[in-house]
UniProtKB/TrEMBL annotation:
The keyword Transmembrane applies. InterPro entries: YgaP-like_TM. It comes from Algoriphagus pacificus. Keywords: Membrane, Transmembrane, Transmembrane helix. It holds the Pfam family YgaP-like_TM. The chain crosses the membrane at residues 12-29, 35-59. Residues 1-66 form the Inner membrane protein YgaP-like transmembrane domain. It comes from the Bacteria. This is DUF2892 domain-containing protein.
């Protein structure tokens, strides 16, 4: 897997992931919406840690400056 995410993209995803996980565990979002938010947060965190987004590959998007 080649990296296809830049540092800004990774930071934004980590912040969104942290907010979603915090909202879930604080009880602000519950039920189905809470579970979906938690899953999206986990996916965002994982993709930002490995610097690779499968959807970016499908659409040919690269936010990483290196080749």
């Amino acid at each position: 897997m080649k990296k296809n995410m830049g540092n800004a993209d990774r930071a934004i995803r980590l912040i969104i992931a942290a907010v979603l996980v915090l909202l879930y565990f604080s009880g602000s979002i519950t039920g189905t919406l809470g579970v979906v938010g938690l899953i999206v947060g986990i996916i965002f965190a994982l993709t930002s840690l490995v610097s690779y987004c499968p959807l970016y590959s499908l659409f040919g998007i690269r936010t990483c400056p290196s080749t």
